[in-house]
Specification:
Oligomer: single chain
Strand order of the largest sheet: 3-2-1-4-5-7-6
Structural class: alpha/beta
Order of helices and strands: HEEEHEHEHHEEHHH
Largest sheet: 7 strands, mixed
Strand content: 15-25%
Radius of gyration: 17 Å
Number of strands: 7
Shape: globular
């Protein structure tokens, strides 16, 4: 369950302030155990007013509007699960930097598409093509995977590891370590088809077992 992973990350970094972009039914958000939580979604599938209090805030707006107008102290842990396109998720990440501090940890959802349909940035087209082929798989991750390539190539003091399955990628900043790997040109990242992802993702995504990732973050949180 996503909330179990997020709660583990929260314990590791001692999170007291949590931001979630893309909440929908709230299955993850309501089960996150952090002192102060903020939820952002233009179409909550519940009544946010019934749950709002001094420790839990809801913003029924798009993420662009939230980041444009919100006034919050930096968050310790940020979960990005909004519109699953490269452009929107990258914009959410870059905008969230203004709501982060040097030790903030991010978790990105659905960074590993399971086929060429799930990697399409157009959700309706993904479903339409699957229906045409009689494919009953309704998974859609979009092209969020490109954000990981962007971070790897363009944000050399930011580091990441990717959990297995449909992929969740955890990101943190460490100015003591510079990623020396060769960068992928920005234009190529934006236009990258699923086939190129298949040929490069094992070497790019920094996959690791869950406990290895937690151990890495524990060392980071300890300042090692």
């Amino acid at each position: 369950m996503h909330h179990e992973r997020i709660n583990r990350l929260a314990r590791i970094c001692g999170a007291r302030r949590y931001l979630e972009v893309g909440v929908f039914h709230g299955h993850t958000f309501f089960n996150v155990d952090v002192d102060f939580k903020v939820a952002v979604d233009p179409t909550f599938q519940f009544d946010p007013a019934a749950h709002q209090n001094d420790r839990t805030r809801f913003h029924p707006v798009g993420s662009d509007d939230f980041f444009r107008s919100a006034r919050y102290e930096p968050f310790d842990l940020i979960y990005l699960d909004g519109l699953h396109t490269f452009e929107q998720t990258l914009r959410d990440f870059l905008n969230s930097l203004a709501f982060a501090h040097d030790r903030t940890i991010w978790l990105f959802d659905d960074t590993v598409p399971n086929d060429n349909f799930s990697a399409l940035p157009d959700q309706e087209r993904c479903y339409r093509l699957r229906r045409a082929l009689g494919n009953g798989d309704w998974a859609w991750m979009g092209d969020v995977f490109k954000v990981v390539y962007f971070i790897r190539s363009m944000m050399k003091f930011y580091h990441f590891r990717t959990f297995g399955g449909h992929g969740q990628t955890v990101v943190w900043r460490d100015p003591k370590q510079y990623d020396e790997r060769e960068a992928t040109p920005l234009a190529r990242i934006g236009e990258m088809p699923y086939e190129d992802f298949v040929e490069t993702y094992v070497a790019t995504m920094n996959f690791a077992e869950d406990e290895q990732i937690y151990a890495t973050l524990e060392r980071y949180a300890a300042g090692a």
